[in-house]
Design brief:
Length: about 150
């Protein structure tokens, strides 16, 4: 697969209340619902998305602690080739809950002043709300391609 740099949004689902230990950041309670996490990959989206679905060995980024957790399901990934800035667009969306703000989550190298790169979905929001140039990767597709 061609190495395409870009941005992506992971759709995560939590079924029941859970308290996740996120490295040095500490315990982070999450309520049931759907969550969006925004990230970018300079060396290829596909490689990074695979890591999120199947887990690397190391817990390096904040998001790794979620994707490795048995109570967090990675539903799908919205991929935006050549649009690495998409990770910063989540904070500006009205359809995301500001009841729970995961301050500082995943934005260690943000530089845009986002409160977080992880948000809970409140209203309806879809991949096309960020850009029309996207593709969606799901678990099943990843398996069938390997
Ligand atoms: Zn940001």
């Amino acid at each position: 697969m061609k190495k395409v740099a870009g941005g992506y949004i992971l759709v995560l689902e939590v079924d029941s209340p859970v308290n996740i230990q996120v490295g040095k950041r500490g315990e982070m309670p999450m309520n049931p619902g759907r969550y969006l996490y925004g990230g970018s990959a300079k060396c290829g989206i596909a490689h990074r998305i695979n890591r999120h679905f199947f887990g690397g060995e190391n817990l390096h980024w904040h998001i790794d602690y979620l994707t490795h957790h048995p109570q967090v399901d990675v539903v799908e990934a919205w991929c935006y080739p050549d649009y690495p800035e998409v990770e910063h667009q989540l904070a500006a969306k009205d359809d995301l809950s500001d009841d729970e703000i995961f301050r500082g989550f995943g934005n260690g190298d943000c530089g845009r002043g986002c409160q977080s790169h992880l948000w809970k979905i409140k209203g309806k929001i879809s991949a096309a709300d960020f850009s029309e140039d996207y593709y969606i990767v799901t678990h099943a597709q990843q398996y069938s391609n390997s």
